[in-house]
From TrEMBL, chains A, B:
Annotated site residues (Determinant of potassium independence) in this chain: 497
Pfam families reported in the protein's UniProt record: H_PPase
Function: Proton pump that utilizes the energy of pyrophosphate hydrolysis as the driving force for proton movement across the membrane. Generates a proton motive force.
Listed name of the protein: K(+)-insensitive pyrophosphate-energized proton pump
Annotated TM spans: 26-50, 78-98, 110-132, 152-182, 188-206, 265-282, 288-311, 323-341, 347-366, 405-427, 439-458, 503-527, 547-568, 621-642, 662-687, 736-754
A GO molecular function held by the record: diphosphate hydrolysis-driven proton transmembrane transporter activity
Keyword Membrane found: yes
Entry's Gene Ontology cellular component terms: endomembrane system; plasma membrane
Catalytic activities: diphosphate + H2O + H(+)(in) = 2 phosphate + 2 H(+)(out)
Self-association and partners: Homodimer.
Length: 755, 755
């Protein structure tokens, strides 16, 4: 039977099975219980938020409009995504049924795919559900207390964080149980790959659709409002203003929620696959370790969120950072405990975990350096704005292209060190080879990085909540003192949004390596099964760990993978432009047909604008999304069927069936596409996220009075940079994070079709 | 003895040596003779250009100023480059002397390095020498005849093209002779790697220094001239105007000359190494084949240039294209003849050659599509300009990111087809394996692509000559009818410059694959030699053809390679900004200190501006240049010394010395750096070249009257895009071409140090 289980790839000796399943399954129940605790905590946070004051009727009117717009978008968006997901489920099912070797797994893969997709959709929607209710309450609280408002916004964010991590933990844990994980623990993790793919697929469309929506509405509202009509941002006369506020929710909350959900899901599945390979060493405990780390994440984040309190005059970032440090320290302590109880107190492995935690910390700090007004990069862009928009753009792009340098070195160092610690930590183990030990080290680093995910996500969702709160205050024309409070919160929210993007790309980079190894192991295993099933020759020393870059299909796959990231970004950016155009046209039409709007005597039709941008964004998200799924599939199939000519020619150490070498071109080309696409995607995403963030803050820096302040020529130039950065940092960049992880999960799931 | 000769890597059988050296060396003499013919033809073209009318004294005054500025820059630039090259020669010599295995080759490698560097420098300088003399004569001819002016400019360009290809051919041919190619033909090509490295090193600094110079002067002159002072382009009152015209020469002529020199050199060396591996099949003829193709290139290009004649009303591009078609057809015929006489009439191999020629043709056409005003991409950017600079920039970047898509598919198709044709063409050969046959097919495709290089380079140099001619006409205030003629030529020159950039990146992409194979073969050979010399175990089935992307050092190398291209681009772009700042400050100072300049009563000090931008550009070129050479070296050495921990763990099929596995981490990490750096560099260069070209022409399109024409808001927005595109397409993009090839040659030369 086909087992998805790569013995030769990872192991040097015969697997042992002397662990106590009855005892070790305790860890699964602990993890699941804490997952439920996380959801309960989310419920209590949500209840406390919902119980707060909802402000004046005027504020409620605005908030209701935002809520209705967001809900209408989400409903249509998830209907579209559901259709696409169901279509893919059918394709997947048929693909798996076609071969007798994969047919027995078709049901399990498709079920876990659908459950992953559903959980991912639920994560995004719950987050948004709370967020569009927390905004008004934060606004209302800001009328009396900054500290109270900050707490409300963060508690709203915590709901997202806890639901995302909790659902990921419970979903994977229950599937593991359902797939017989307690009876055949080494088999079950491989059948979870569908879960990761489902999660990524929904995340991709959620992020793409939301990202296109938010920036189309933003750019559209700004171009007709601020530039043409000369009215301020968030002015109630602008028909696109509600669409803009809706966008903050659907883009940032729902998008990032699904993004981090798939990060944890993909990383958990990858680490559990690896844990299965290390079964001879740790038994069931090694497979359950990633789930326990997520449980620690939940506990640490609940406590971290709870300690955040802020004085009325304190910078809100200080309070948020305190919570982050508390979470990190608790996660570290929990990590140490888990290593003690589950991994036989191998303290070198704690070193690997610290590598991940340190990477997370450094990525946040580096992102700060490149995007905050205190530091040189943003200052230089602001200075370049004094000579006009061209120099602002040149400087911004140069900063963007510089940003990957240090993070790349950090990732390399983290991988090298955690690998080394893994080898040292498992030095006494003889049943697995050094490579598996090292990879396990990098997997633990990835877990370390994700061990504060729930808190990070809470900080992230804090962003759109405070942004919306500011908009509600602005539109309901509250006194200046209240605005000052929400401006402070809004500034902190912008910072947290930028930092979490750095965190997301960092975790994607670390996880990429783990998932790539899982792909290679899976291919190896499938080849071994097929060759054995056909009575072919499987040389004992052969491994599918070497992807030959000098082979033409591999080079082609690598080129195509890198090209995919560029084309995908181009499509995403152009989609924003086209969707923004529809907004502009509608606003023009409303101004023309109803002159009372600009005079303030008539209300604009906010809903029409919301509907129009909804339709446009959903239409635009399809092409880049299909490209992302279709390209690996196309490359794999083309080289599967036409790639035999390009096989390696040294067949003395190659799997053979009936005297013919197994054609690996398809699997190899896809491996290269995955790897080089990931690398290119990481760098492009950093360029766009950090470049966009730096442009944004250069404008804000000038607005504080530098280089002539608002209405100066420098400010005009900086606005150009900020507008260019918008689709970079809020559409293409974040969508690339998701693309990277989707590539990893789609290739894992489709692997059997490439051979 | 150390042989650089990878028997196991390429060959399946025992090499034969039954070819007639005495007879086949005839081809070397033919190639060398045609090389001399090429130089002679260049001499005659130059003489006919120099014999033409030099116009009015006013025109000569301007031209002399340009010439002096260019010569002063070149002198200082090449002094700096010479120092860097000598320093590297010492490092190289010491590095090679350190190991007893490489020590015998130290002299040859260093000598070929120095000769390659010298020839590259000569190529760049000769081209410029003619170009700064052809500009005034073209301008003078334009006063009477467009057709005559076009011919003069093209003949000036032909001098560059022929000198570049001729010097490359003669340099390599003579070194091959000197290194005993006629006695031991299989050994000599490996010792030529120094030639390619020398050529690339000089090309990198020539392109970087020239590219920074040209854009710093251009941006600086525009910002104070057009934007601040409101005077037209090329106005004699602008102190930076001569520096701007000098820049066109040092950036485009000298830079691209060295770039194409390096392309032909690197490709020739790579193809000769492969020819040496195929010695059992073709004997000496296979090694000399690339040189004969260059000889065909020379003959075809001389004839192609000679047929170009243009009527007074014809679009100059038509005439230039006619010449290109003639050259291509002649090259194809010559290719067929060479295959008949040298490769045993294996017509499938002609198919490989046609792949290369078709790739060249398609790249030129795709570049046209993305950068010419007739087509949708430029029209869309122009349309986006109507809503301001931000949308212009967004649209331009989106177009730039879209541009790699089709070229990448073309490259993949060309590689796959030419590989397949190679396998078919050599199907009857049993002494080499299918991989070597396929790679030879791709090598022939690369030769096909480069078989019209001299003509392409002539078209490229046509650009700065006509640009300068236009500037001279403008500054000497000639009548409108003359300006119209030079405007036509200038427009054609802009097109040819864009097209040749497409060509250059296409040839770099094809050659990359060939050079990567050469690197792997070299590493394989060095390992085999070392293991044998130390009495170790060399498994017969082991090849260094598999670079394991799942190994941490390889992943790190790949990440660092991609990051290098981003950081390098960022440094190049920022260098332009800083150097432009010095120009702006000087112009401000001149206007302030001498108010007569703006009133037209006093001449500005053009020379001071030229000196300032010279100093700035030379200072700025050092850091990115050192990064390009230093990073592969650093990665290779770090993993050589610290990478043993990360070795693969399956040692059943691994070279061993004294029971320890040979540490390949350094060589593997560098291989990944080379490959992924190349892929990332190709895509980034396409983004920047085509994006920059499209912005440029969107502005020109608006200037023809679209969207409100000159002085409209759309035009202002388009000027922003054009300015952003300048350092993209003239500094960072072309420098990336050179970086890609430098990475290939530097890794070949340094390979022995990584083990």
């Amino acid at each position: 039977m086909f087992s998805f289980f790569p013995v030769a790839f990872w192991q040097t000796g015969v697997p042992s099975s002397g662990t106590d399943l009855a005892h070790d399954q305790l860890f699964l129940w602990i993890a699941l219980s804490i997952g439920v605790v996380g959801l309960l905590a989310a419920f209590f946070f949500a209840r406390s938020v919902l119980g707060s004051d909802t402000g004046s009727p005027e504020m409620r009117r605005i908030s209701d409009a935002i809520r209705q717009g967001a809900e209408a978008f989400m409903k249509r968006q998830y209907s579209t995504i559901a259709l696409i997901a169901l279509g893919l489920a059918v394709v997947l099912y048929i693909g798996y049924r076609l071969s007798p070797l994969t047919a027995p797994f078709a049901n399990k893969v498709v079920i876990s795919f659908l459950i992953g997709a559903t959980c991912s959709a639920l994560s995004g929607q719950t987050g948004m559900w709370v967020s569009i209710r927390a905004n008004i309450r934060t606004a209302a609280a800001a009328r009396t207390s900054l500290g109270k408002a900050l707490q409300l916004a963060l508690h709203g964010g915590a709901v997202t964080g806890l639901v995302v991590v909790g659902l990921s933990l419970i979903g994977i844990g229950l599937l593991f149980l359902a797939f017989g994980g307690l009876h055949d623990p080494r088999q079950a993790p491989y059948q979870l790959v569908g879960f990761g793919f489902g999660a990524s697929l929904v995340a991709l469309f959620a992020q793409l659709g939301g990202g296109i929506y938010t920036k189309a509405a933003d750019v559209g509202a700004d171009l007709v409002g601020k530039v043409e009509a000369g009215i301020p941002e968030d002015d109630p006369r602008n028909p696109a203003v509600i669409a803009d506020l809706v966008g903050d929710n659907v883009g940032d909350c729902a998008g990032r929620g699904a993004d981090i959900f798939e990060s944890t899901a993909a990383e958990n599945v990858g680490a559990m696959i690896l844990g299965a390979a290390l079964y001879p060493v740790f038994g069931l405990k090694g497979i359950l370790f990633p789930l326990i780390v997520q449980a620690i994440n939940i506990v640490a984040s609940i406590l971290g969120v709870s300690v955040v309190r802020s004085g009325e005059d304190e910078d809100p970032m200080h309070a948020l950072n305190r919570g982050y440090y508390v979470t990190t320290l608790l996660a570290l302590a929990g990590f140490a405990a888990a290593i003690y109880f589950m991994l036989g107190a191998r303290w070198w492995l704690l070193g690997s975990g610290i590598c991940g935690i340190a990477t997370s910390f450094l990525f946040v700090r580096i992102t700060e350096y490149y995007t905050e007004t205190r530091f040189r990069p943003v200052r230089n862009i602001a200075l370049a704005s004094t000579t006009g928009p061209a120099t602002n753009i040149i400087q911004g792009l140069a900063v963007g292209m510089e940003t990957p340098a240090i993070p790349v070195i950090v990732i390399c160092a983290a991988l090298l060190l955690s690998y080394y610690f893994g080898v040292r930590g498992l030095a006494d183990v003889t049943t697995i080879n050094a490579y598996a030990k090292g990879i396990y080290g990098t997997a633990i680093a990835t877990m370390g990085m994700l061990s504060s995910a729930a808190y990070i996500l809470a900080m992230d969702t804090f962003g759109p909540i405070t942004d919306n709160a500011g908009g509600i205050i602005e539109m309901s024309e509250q006194p200046e003192s209240v605005r000052e409070k929400t401006d402070k919160l809004d500034a902190a929210g912008n910072t947290t949004k930028a930092l979490t993007k750095g965190y997301a790309i960092g975790s994607a980079s670390l996880a990429a390596f783990l998932l790539f190894s899982a792909y290679l192991a899976t291919i190896h295993d499938i080849v071994a099964q097929r060759v054995t099933a056909s009575g072919g020759v499987m040389p004992p020393t052969w491994t599918f760990s070497n992807v030959n870059l000098a082979s033409v299909p591999v080079f082609a796959g690598a080129l195509l993978g890198a090209m995919l990231t560029y084309l995908f970004s181009s499509l995403a950016i152009k989609a924003v432009g086209r969707a923004a155009q529809t907004v502009i046209e509608d606003v023009h039409a409303q101004f023309r047909d109803n002159p009372g709007i600009m005079q303030g005597t008539a209300h604009p039709d906010y809903g029409r604008c919301v509907r129009i941008v909804t339709t446009a964004a959903l239409k635009e998200m399809v092409l880049p999304g299909i490209l992302a799924v279709g390209m690996p599939l196309a490359v794999g199939l083309i080289f599967r069927y036409f790639g035999a000519e390009y096989n390696p020619t040294n067949f003395t150490n190659h799997p053979m069936i009936d005297g013919h070498p197994v054609n690996l071109s398809g699997a190899e080309a896809v491996a290269a596409l995955l790897m080089v696409g990931t690398i290119s995607g990481i760098l492009l995403a950093m360029l766009m996220n950090n470049g966009g963030g730096a442009w944004d803050n250069a404008k804000k820096y000038i607005e504080t009075g530098a280089h002539g302040g608002k209405r100066s020529e420098a400010h005009k130039a900086a606005v150009v940079g900020d507008t260019v950065g918008d689709p970079f940092k809020d559409t293409a960049g974040p969508s690339l994070h998701v693309l990277i992880k989707l590539l990893a999960t789609v290739t894992l799931v489709l692997a059997p079709l490439f051979l």
